[in-house]
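Task: sequence design from structure.
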């Protein structure tokens, strides 16, 4: 029996979460093997929005510019949401700069969101992985079984191309293997929640001339609201590639190329030559796993949580899972992190998953605004015009939380984590829509553009960073460095002489984790116990 060379971490699944974990580990010198049973190509849209937080991770990895360059519609293409009766019909209302995709510099974040198909996102990530000699990517390889033996995990893997099976020995196994996760089954985790919030189809088609055949202006989504064939439609990629998600999916008996083409024509009211490339069926549900770990085996991404696509949170949530688990695994493998780091993975990400799932479900509920339409909604009459004006106002107000949800993207906190030195203080006001930066421990570090034009985040170290806003704390800095050296902890000192940023951070000393979340803040360095806590050694 052939055996792969032993690896420190085996990752099953090369979607965004698995790729992100491999990048996070690879950038820290950890040897990992990434296996994937599919070839990860095709037209299926999957996710199309890469959120600000995800692109901030891409910036940290050095590939945010590559992602921007891969934008099929152009990075300056308006990310507007149009509500219309039909693509070839009446306008109702519009939400501009959905998901904060505008490339204009914003003080609140280091990177704007981006409208780009998931398959292009994955390609950028795969291309980056080539730069890591310690990362091996094996497509057409699938996990069959796994078990923990003492201090290692033995996984049985099958090469789909030739049918051969072999064992892989690793210190850790991570399942980034999606909604039907085998690793989730292996660790005995159960998904809890609700199946079947909605039934839908994704239709991808080529439509030369469609962008010029309507008068609504450029946008990324056109929500067609009519009593006949409602649905969402929009541009997806170069070469006139579009996507269409028809409403009333439960009434569709058969969906082949002819029927899909007919649906597009009826829904848009535009008669062009449409070439249907794919039609995938999916079901929107909300689930979360009852546990994310067993011993040396973990699950991330869709393997441990599923939510309706409203808001575009799923892929982005999985990437942040991988970031959280990735730096912690690396810290433990490199010897400066304690076991409490790994215990904190579920403790930190679980509440975030619940928060985001609730937001997605709330967004999903607002789609009821598109139903029970009066028959005259498309009438070319004064009453029809009045009905459209009223509906447009309701849609613009009711759907805003989904398309401008910076509070969901950036506002979550790990304040209850055992590896955060939490404070007893009032939490800042927050909502799905609004994000209020805070340096309260557990929160994402407040962002700022420095006087030299650089992002504050670009000054942070790869591991922990101590931000120092006052030269009077030289003694505290020396003590912190001595404590870090005693623990073999990489610690970068970031001296900042910027009153505006100092006011934003509120304390003269602020400790930032590798994932850019605040671990501790204070007026004086309290001693080695802080570092022991935030590195999972003791609290």
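Answer:
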């Amino acid at each position: 029996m052939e055996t792969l060379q032993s690896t420190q971490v085996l990752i099953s699944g090369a979607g965004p979460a698995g790729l992100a974990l491999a990048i996070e580990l690879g950038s820290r010198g950890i040897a990992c093997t990434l296996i994937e049973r599919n070839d990860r190509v095709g037209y299926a849209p999957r996710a199309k929005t890469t959120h600000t937080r995800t692109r901030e991770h891409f910036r940290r990895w050095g590939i945010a510019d590559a992602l921007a360059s891969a934008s099929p519609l152009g990075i300056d293409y308006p990310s507007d949401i149009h509500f219309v009766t039909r693509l070839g019909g009446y306008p109702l209302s519009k939400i501009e700069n959905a998901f904060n995709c505008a490339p204009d510099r914003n003080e609140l974040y280091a990177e704007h969101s981006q409208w780009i198909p998931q398959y292009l996102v994955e390609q950028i990530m795969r291309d980056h992985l080539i730069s890591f000699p310690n990362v091996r990517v094996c497509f057409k390889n699938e996990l069959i079984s796994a078990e923990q033996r003492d201090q290692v995990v033995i996984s049985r893997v099958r090469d789909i191309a030739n049918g051969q099976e072999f064992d892989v020995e690793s210190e850790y196994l991570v399942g980034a293997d999606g909604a039907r996760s085998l690793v989730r089954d292996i660790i005995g985790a159960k998904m809890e929640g609700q199946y079947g919030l909605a039934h839908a189809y994704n239709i991808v088609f080529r439509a030369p001339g469609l962008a010029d055949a309507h008068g609504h202006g450029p946008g990324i989504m056109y929500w067609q609201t009519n009593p006949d064939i409602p649905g969402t439609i929009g541009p997806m990629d170069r070469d006139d590639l579009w996507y269409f998600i028809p409403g009333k999916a439960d009434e569709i008996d058969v969906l082949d190329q002819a029927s899909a083409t007919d649906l597009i024509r009826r829904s848009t009211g535009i008669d062009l030559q449409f070439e249907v490339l794919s039609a995938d069926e999916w079901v929107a549900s909300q689930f979360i796993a009852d546990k994310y770990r067993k011993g040396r085996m973990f699950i991330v991404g869709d393997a441990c949580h599923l939510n309706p696509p409203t808001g575009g949170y799923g892929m982005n949530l999985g990437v942040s899972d991988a970031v959280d688990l990735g730096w912690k695994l690396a810290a433990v493998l490199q010897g400066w992190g304690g076991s409490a780091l790994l215990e904190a993975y579920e403790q930190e990400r679980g509440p975030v998953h619940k928060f985001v799932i609730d937001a997605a479900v709330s967004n999903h509920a607002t789609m009821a605004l598109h139903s029970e339409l009066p028959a005259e909604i498309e009438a070319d009459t004064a009453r029809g015009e009045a009905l459209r004006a009223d509906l447009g106002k309701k849609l613009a107000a009711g759907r805003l939380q989904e398309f401008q949800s910076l509070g969901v993207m950036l506002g979550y906190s790990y304040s209850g984590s055992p590896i955060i030195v939490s404070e007893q203080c009032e939490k800042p006001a927050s909502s799905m829509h609004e994000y209020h930066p805070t340096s309260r421990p557990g929160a994402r570090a407040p962002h700022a553009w420095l006087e030299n034009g650089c992002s504050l985040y670009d000054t942070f170290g790869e591991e922990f960073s101590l931000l120092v806003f006052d030269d009077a704390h030289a003694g505290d800095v020396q003590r912190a460095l001595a404590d870090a050296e005693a623990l073999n902890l990489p610690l970068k000192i970031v001296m900042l002489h910027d009153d505006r940023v100092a006011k934003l951070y509120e304390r003269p000393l602020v400790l930032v984790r590798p994932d850019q979340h605040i671990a501790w803040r204070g007026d004086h360095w309290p001693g080695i116990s802080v570092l022991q806590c935030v590195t999972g050694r003791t609290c």
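Residues 7-61+112-192+286-362 form a domain with the FAD/NAD(P)-binding domain fold (CATH 3.50.50.60).
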